[in-house]
């Protein structure tokens, strides 16, 4: 998982519009607003004709003038807030790009995924992410009329992956210059401004929107439904839909499996393979039946690797390890390798029937970024070849997902329901089930 704290930098959390586009803030001029709305409506029609996925999602956003508080544009998932004087600076095709920019922030739930990462650095990473997707898929025209973040090397990367790169290089980066290239005002719905609590700001658009947690979740649910509807209406199939969005759609439409069911099924399938007819069991003889016997020299060998980069809490860990122990204690011959990792492996321990009771007290160590390759390197160096490798993670590695050929792998993903691993079995952690 990405690093959470911005300890290597000193960035302000002030609204960047206040400095970069502060001269655009002020009372609305009717004629300017009328021209801006006309350009916005025309841009949405253009998207509907040329990139219908983005056009359909953009059309559902209500246009609200925000000249008083927003120097560029913004969205809370229901509304498209705009500064009429900023819109005047953009070419018509660039406004299509701007709509696509706001749409992807919503689809990727960037505001909900930020967590306790440095806000400004994560905003920069999010802009790099969506701008690369939009430019690759030729949604509108890349914005050059005002500064806009773009770097080809970030193409195809998630905001968390980009954040990790930026964080590692924060001491070499002029964060202020990058902040000045942010294209919009990134809302998280937590403003203490004058907006009301229904997600619409003030009725005249003078206040930043403020949302309750219930409203934020309702908006996320609305966006999921809108994404599926827009995808089904996409006239060019998946041509204009970025890979990250396609993965989200696949996940929303795929059957869901409870993580406990997946874990039990995978571990029991390993155990069932360890029977032999060479050594018959006496069980069933009274029924004139011959049952397979257990191979006496084979152990059920599994490994559990826990992503310790920041988001896993004690209750989740206890729940996960207790479930694993409950499955394994049904059998006599087993061993469980447990370790935590971020960019290296910590606290490796082995559990079997003699010490299984203490597995729930296992302590997590770590707290850095996430490198899946380190756990495979550790397993290889320690000569551990598990029959199942179970990885408890948030699904945001820095780079590769590791060696898919080393072990049958089960991913239990927490803190997300949109990430789809490129290989292996997976399910999403749900503490309520």
Fold topology:
Blueprint lengths: L16 H4 L9 H21 L1 H8 L2 E4 L7 E3 L3 E4 L1 H6 L2 H16 L2 H4 L5 H18 L22 H10 L6 H5 L33 H20 L10 H11 L5 H14 L2 E7 L9 E4 L5 E8 L6 H15 L5 E8 L3 E7 L20 H10 L6 E6 L15 E5 L11 E4 L5
Parallel strand pairs: 1-3, 6-7, 6-9, 9-10, 10-11
Antiparallel strand pairs: 2-3, 4-5, 7-8
Helix pairs in contact: 2-3, 2-5, 3-5, 3-10, 5-7, 7-8, 12-13
Main sheet properties = 6 strands, mixed
Q: What's the tally of helices?
A: 14
Give the total of beta strands: 11
Structural class designation: alpha/beta
Radius of gyration: 26 Å
Task: Characterise this structure.
Helix content is 37%, strand content 14%. By secondary structure, it is α/β, with parallel strands linked by helices. It folds into 2 domains: 17-253, no CATH class; 259-428, Rossmann fold. A 6-stranded mixed β-sheet has the order 8-7-6-9-10-11. A 3-stranded mixed β-sheet has the order 1-3-2. Strands 4-5 form a two-stranded antiparallel sheet. Helix 2 crosses helix 5, helix 3 (52-59) packs antiparallel against helix 10 and helix 5 (92-107) crosses helix 7. The radius of gyration is 26 Å and the shape is elongated. 43% of the residues are buried.
